[in-house]
Write a structure and sequence with these properties.
Blueprint (H helix, E strand, L loop, with lengths): L10 H24 L3 H5 L1 H25 L21 E5 H7 L4 H5 L5 E5 L7 E5 L7 E5 L2 E2 L19 E8 L3 H4 L6 E7 L5 E11 L3 E11 L3 E15 L21 E15 L4 E15 L23 E17 L2 E14 L5 E17 L2 E16 L9 E15 L2 E12 L5 E13 L2 E12 L3 H5 L9 E11 L3 E11 L2 E4 L6 E4 L3 E15 L3 E13 L12 E10 L4 E10 L2 E2 L5 E2 L2 E13 L2 E8 L18 E9 L1
Parallel strand pairs: 4-7
Antiparallel strand pairs: 1-6, 2-3, 4-5, 6-7, 8-9, 8-33, 9-10, 10-11, 11-12, 12-13, 13-14, 14-15, 15-16, 16-17, 17-18, 18-19, 19-20, 20-21, 21-22, 22-25, 23-24, 25-26, 26-27, 27-28, 28-31, 29-30, 31-32, 32-33
């Protein structure tokens, strides 16, 4: 019963929201009935029956569209094609699903699927860590339209808290070691965020959203396309007063009190996005992609310690306790289809600048080319090679002794489908100039026992190279790359999937010593990551779509100690009700089980519930309401850092 403490006296929140939503539905129906003339009224019974059937068909179509968009036949990921032929554990979150479920952020959307959990150092825009199957964020490669987003000047991987959901077509998640295709940063998996591409004609889109904590979100997009070219532009702005990033630690005075007089830590984010292509011929295409972001997040002294702006921070001068973050992504590419060959060539650049602690500046350059040859029906081989360069200009205001590292790689992926049997193998060789060369691979097979019910198994290897900061830091002498290997076994169909996975890391990189003799080193022994993922998805009563996902995770370091902030048990669920083609609602819930923080504090388990309703004003405009944490549950993702209480958001979106 402790898990449900606080629900009594608060159930009115959900009841009020549902009543309001029901009122919208009844009012919409009332407007339609009042508009009918006497002749229509005489035939009301038969027309209402036809209308009910039409609405049911519309709801079924919406559900079918969501299901279809989970099975993309082609992806910008090098090996993800038709999902039924893919051996890896793959999750796809479509743009329609994002809209229906009312996700507030990329992290919130990712947290809805199995195998993923996260923690954040406060509220909006604060630094966060995403754990894919328990792996640190640095083990997961994150891409936006195929361009790397992992910040090479830091240790925390990609800053997903700065990526908004506006203008996103879909999010693809490939779990388990993917170094056999993507190299060092993909030893835990790959997340590919794909933005929308303009189709035909001229159109645009505007969005306005207001919410709790003085939240303002505005966006506009414009696009044009014909047979020769397409281009799309979008501009997004977010501003909020936020909440206090820090909060009392568990056991401290004021814990679980959201009404403390602690300074709010605001957040702003401005993202400019430009994407397009030119069709040179029916088989050749040039593409470009530019994305620039400028964000500012205010933060606090540390866990459990509030700090006012303009205070001095650790002797570095007047820092004002805020961080200005600039991210720039660029890509120029060519795609060609000639006979049985598909050619893809890209030149990408990612640059990152963070102002705090006197500044962090880093860049990544990548150039690659691949050729996919379909040498038989349902059989192909993808061969590619590339060059990757990391540059770190500044870390905490200091220049590193070694500020660049280069890598050259070549990879091959073979895929086959013979009736009910599918198989895939990949092999990659990385030659790095700062540590030993690496050869990684993965192999897997899938068999369909009956219709779409399958069993699959795969074995994968991976590695994570020390970055430039770790190689140069303090008293660090020599570091070796982390090495990982593991397997997974899955069974299921389109509606149900069950997976067991196990992966181990050798030479895990850790931090030790005390300043000025602190350093990074490789741990002896192996860290263990294993668990079970289960998900079920089912439509019923013609207008409902229900989903439930469960993850059991058992992660231990080389000494057998539990790794911090990874919940052993996690449930997520969703119920969507498509009342008709104009009105739909969604209720989402999550349960985060027991876990320890880095200070060995036992964190509390908690339930969270979110609710959203969308109403189409016409075919080109709709309004929506979102309610987060509707029972106002107090919880912490990381000991000593704040989280959002009950908060509401209302928005309007129109396309033209």
């Amino acid at each position: 019963m402790k898990l449900f403490r606080g629900f009594r006296g608060k159930y009115f929140s959900l009841a009020a929201i549902l009543a309001c939503s029901a009122g919208v539905s009844l009012e919409a129906q009332s407007i339609g009935l009042n508009a009918k003339d006497d002749n229509v009224s005489r035939n009301l019974a038969s027309e209402k029956e036809a209308e009910t059937e039409e609405k049911a068909l519309e709801a079924i179509q919406v559900i079918a569209d969501i299901e279809k968009k989970r099975t993309y036949e082609q992806s910008s990921l090098r090996t993800l094609k038709q999902k039924s032929n893919t051996i890896d554990s793959v999750e796809i979150i479509s743009g329609d699903e994002i809209e229906v479920k009312g996700f507030g952020s990329v992290i919130e959307a990712l947290n809805s699927i199995t195998g993923i959990s996260y923690s954040a150092n406060g509220g909006y825009g604060q630094s966060s860590s995403l754990y894919l199957r328990g792996f640190d964020a640095k083990h997961t490669l994150v891409l936006i339209d195929g361009v790397r987003v992992n910040d090479v000047s830091g240790l925390s991987g990609a800053q997903l808290e700065l990526v908004d959901l506006y203008n996103i077509e879909r999010i693809e998640v490939v779990k388990g070691a993917q170094s056999g295709v993507w190299g060092s940063d993909a030893s835990g998996g790959v997340i590919n965020i794909i933005t929308k591409t303009k189709k035909q004609g001229f159109d645009g889109d505007i969005l306005l959203e207001l919410g709790s904590n003085v939240w303002y979100k505005t966006a506009v997009s414009l696009g044009y396309a014909n047979e020769a070219l397409d281009v799309s532009f979008s501009l997004l702005s977010i501003k909020t007063d936020g909440i206090s990033a820090a909060a009392p630690k568990k056991g401290d005075s004021g814990y679980a009190n959201r009404d403390l007089d602690w300074e709010k830590d605001g957040f702003s984010n401005l993202i400019l996005h430009l994407k397009g292509g030119v069709n040179i011929s029916g088989n050749d295409r040039l593409e470009f992609f530019i994305r620039n972001g400028k964000a500012e997040n205010h933060f606090d002294d540390s866990a459990g310690k509030d700090a006012k702006d303009y205070d001095d921070l650790y002797g570095y001068g007047e820092s004002k306790y805020f961080n200005t973050i600039r991210t720039s992504l660029y890509s120029l590419g060519y795609e060609g289809a000639h006979g049985k060959h598909k050619i893809d060539a890209r030149v990408n650049q990612s640059s990152f600048k963070r102002s705090f602690y006197n500044g962090y500046i880093g860049k990544t350059y990548e150039a690659y080319m691949s050729d996919e040859w379909s040498y038989a029906d349902d059989s192909s081989v993808l061969v590619g090679f590339g060059y990757l360069r990391d540059e770190v200009e500044r870390v905490a205001g200091e220049k590193l002794p070694n500020d660049t590292q280069d890598s050259r790689y070549i990879f091959a992926v073979n895929s086959n489908r013979f009736g009910d049997f599918a198989a895939s193998q990949s092999l990659r060789f990385d030659a790095r100039d700062t540590f030993e060369d690496k050869l990684t691979f993965k192999i897997g097979a899938k068999y369909y026992l009956y219709k779409d019910f399958f069993v699959s198994a795969s074995y994968k290897t991976g590695f994570l190279a020390p970055n430039l900061y770790q190689q140069s830091y303090g008293a660090t002498d020599t570091l070796r790359a982390e090495e990982s290997s593991g397997y997974e076994i899955s069974a299921g169909n389109g509606d149900f999937t069950l997976t067991y996975f196990e992966q181990k890391i050798k030479n895990a990189i850790d931090y030790g010593g005390a300043w000025p003799a602190d350093y990074y080193y490789n741990l002896a022994g192996k860290s263990s990551y294993k668990g079970v993922e289960a998900s079920v998805r089912q439509s019923f009563l013609e207008s409902f779509l229900g989903e439930l996902a469960y993850t059991y995770l058992d992660v231990e370091d080389t000494l057998g100690n539990k790794i911090a902030r990874r919940p052993r048990n996690k449930f997520t669920g969703s119920l969507s009700w498509f009342i008709n083609n104009s009105l739909y609602m969604n209720l989402r819930g999550s349960y985060i089980g027991s876990r320890y923080d880095a200070n060995s504090i036992q964190m509390e388990r908690y339930f969270l519930f979110d609710y959203g309703v969308n109403y189409d004003l016409d075919k080109d405009a709709f309004i929506y309401l979102k309610a987060h944490n509707i029972f106002d549950k107090y919880y912490q993702e990381a000991d000593g850092y704040g989280t959002l209480g009950r908060s509401f958001y209302i928005g309007f979106r129109k396309s033209f």
